[in-house]
Amino acid sequence: MGGRASGPPPLPGAAGRVWRTLGAAFVVLVFVPPLLLLVSGSLTEPGLPPSPTPHLVPDPVSTAGYRQALEIGGLLRASLNSVLVAVVAVPLSVLVAALAGFALARLAPRTTATVVAASLVALMVPATALLVPRFAIFRALGLTDTLVPLIAPALLGTSPLYVLVYYLAFRALPRDLYDACLVEDLSPMRIWWRVALPLVRPVTAALTALTFVLTWSNFLDPLIYVYDRDLFTLPLALRSLSVLDPTNFPVFLAGAVLATAPALLVFVLAQRRFLHHDDPTGRDRP
């Protein structure tokens, strides 16, 4: 009776899609213009004076900066060293953090509270406060001037933050799921690998991307532990390239593009997981 006709209820995921679209637009507006200027500057002819105004399309377009960056700056060898460190350290760090987070989620509540409190205290310790004792340990073991100190932190999950993130993810899984696994007489390792870990794939994708970016861009640790130029990672090689000829900016920008491209590729590969919900059947749904 004179009631107002109501339209169809909004779709449950509509608001989430709008916010994701707005977030993606914000990221594009903030990060894409600097990247375009970076690529444009890398395609400028080396040796020419810098233009007073930036141009998206340089005139003339030249790839000589990339050739000089690879040949003079030693970026090819440094890239291989960085790839080696990332290929070993990133999966190892994620697996250790996932295993520790799962164990933490299955401990008794009082023990869990103690370990979480200790992890939070560890996160408050500045990383620079650990540089001297870590260097002393690696030097006593004869591991300085090798890539081992760059990989070794992965044996501890790299950071307590990663363990806590996995702990919260595993804790959010239904308790009935764990009880059903126990009824099926599954071992803790099989529960972790076959049941729990596949259900937190968005967390794994996000932490994998984060760990790769931090490992790939790590400058301080190679600066402290690596002295042989043949063992330089990409950040160290870029630093050497920047001081080699500070006025030849197209060569340095070309090196910066080569260093940035892998991190962007990893983000593109991982974004599907942490921009979409993941259901237990293994199908993604927006």
UniProtKB/TrEMBL annotation:
Main location: membrane
InterPro entries: MetI-like (IPR000515), MetI-like_sf (IPR035906)
UniProt keyword terms in alphabetical order: Cell membrane, Membrane, Transmembrane, Transmembrane helix, Transport
Membrane-related topology note: Multi-pass membrane protein
Domain ABC transmembrane type-1: residue ranges: 79-270
Transmembrane region(s): 21-43, 83-104, 116-138, 150-170, 191-216, 249-270
Pfam families assigned to the protein according to its UniProt record, in alphabetical order: BPD_transp_1
Cell compartments where the protein resides: Cell membrane
Family that this chain belongs to: Belongs to the binding-protein-dependent transport system permease family.
Protein name stated in the entry: Carbohydrate ABC transporter permease
Lineage: Bacteria, Bacillati, Actinomycetota, Actinomycetes, Micromonosporales
